[in-house]
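pasting input
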Amino acid sequence: QVQLQESGPGLVKPLETLSLTCSVSGGPIETYYYNWIRQTPGKRLEWIGDIKYNTENTKYNPSFKSRVTMSVDTSKRQLSLKLKSVTAEDTAIYFCARSVLIGYYHYWYFDLWGRGTLVTVSS
Amino acid sequence: EIVLTQSPGTVSLSPGDRVTLSCRASESVAGNYIVWYRQKPGQAPTLLIHGASSRATGIPERFSGSGSATDFSLIISRLEPEDFAMYYCQQYGSSPITFGPGTRVDIK
C-alpha cells in the first residue's frame, strides 16, 4: 500500500528558503504526478504545483512560480519542494498528494495524500 | 484562474439529517471536472466524489454529487457522526487547480 510522508523543518526564518521532502513507500511510483498542496491557518487549500516522477517535468501555480522549485531523488524515492524568500503568509501545513492515474490518463485530483507537515515562518 | 465559492460557510445539523452543499465556479468547469473532499480535524482531505457525480472507491452511498458548468452540489442523505467535518470542492478542468474555501458541517 503506497504511503506518502512529508518531512522538513517546522520553523523557517523570513526571507529564507523552505525545503521539504515527500517520501514515497510501498508501491509503484514512476508513472505518477506528485503535487504539493498547502493549507493556510484559515483552512484554505492552495495547489503549489506538480512534478512527474519519471521525467521530472513540472508545472507550477503562477502564484508561486517565481519562488518554487520541485525535484525528484529517485535513489531515495523522494520528492522535494523548495520555496524561497518566505514570509509569514507561507505559514501553512504542506501536503504532498498523488494525482489519479486511470489507464494512461492522468487527472489532477488526489486520492492519496500524506499527513502533512506544519511549517511556521517566524524570526 | 477559476474561483470557486462554497455555501453555506457553516451549517449546524443533527445526525440523520440531510444536507446539500453548494460549489459555484466563476466560469464553466471543463468536463465538469469537480471533486469533493471531506477533511476531519488533523487529517488530510479524503476524496469523496470525482467528475462531479462519481463516488470514489469505498465511499458510502449516502454521498452523492450533481451539477454541471458552474453549479455543483454535494448531498449527504443521512449524516453520520464522522460526517461532521470540513468539505471542499476542487476543480481540475483547467490550470491552475483551485479549491473552494470550504463548508464546515457542525453538530447542532
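fyi The radius of gyration of chain B is 13 Å.
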